[in-house]
Amino acid sequence: MSIVDMPPVRRQIMRATVAALMMTAGWATKVETHAATTASARERPQLQASDLVGTYMVTGTETDGMPYLAPRRLVITRGPSGALELEWENGVGVGEVIGRTLGVATWARGRTVILVMDVQADGSLSGRLLRRTDSGTHGGETWRRIAR
């Protein structure tokens, strides 16, 4: 299912989630620690959304800290709006790049999910995931590119 095929209410929820995520990510970038702003980090070029288009293998942990049972496949494409569209075997999401961070809003198990992924020097992405109403905060994923 693509984002345009979603029911209107679900699209609105995802848009609102991405907007909130982008505001939070903007705030977070202002409070970076000194360690995160080393010379090597400043020398890296700005990330473009098109740099992330491709197929990835996803590993990670659920919000309760339990590891995923098996790696999952993720495909990232550019949508008509210019936003990144993400498609896992079990769902879809929409993403936006700010600096070297990708913010993603998606839907899983009937709940909104927000991922904040940092692009690593080797091109992989890693970060946290938060799922609405989950009590755990240990969710995270690592995405390794397997094809462009």
What are the key terms here?
single chain, 148 residues, alpha+beta, Lipocalin, eight-stranded antiparallel barrel, 2 helices
Structure, explained:
This protein is of the alpha+beta class. The chain has one domain: Lipocalin (Beta Barrel), CATH 2.40.128. Helix content is about 20%, strand content about 40%. The chain has 2 helices and 8 strands, in the order ααββββββββ. It has helices at about 10-30, 40-45, and strands at about 55-60, 70-80, 85-90, 90-100, 100-110, 110-120, 125-130, 140-145. It has an 8-stranded antiparallel barrel with strand order 1-2-3-4-5-6-7-8. A hairpin with a 5-residue loop joins β6 (about 110-120) and β7 (about 125-130). The longest helix has 23 residues, at about 10-30. It is globular. The model is unreliable at about 25-40 (pLDDT under 50).
- Considering the protein shown, what is the CATH homologous superfamily? Quinohemoprotein amine dehydrogenase alpha subunit, domain 2
Mean pLDDT: 81
Assign the CATH topology: Lipocalin
Count of discrete structural domains: 1
Radius of gyration: 15 Å
What summary fits the major beta sheet?
Answer: 8 strands, antiparallel, barrel
Shape assignment? globular
- Architecture, CATH level 2? Beta Barrel
Termini separation: 21 Å
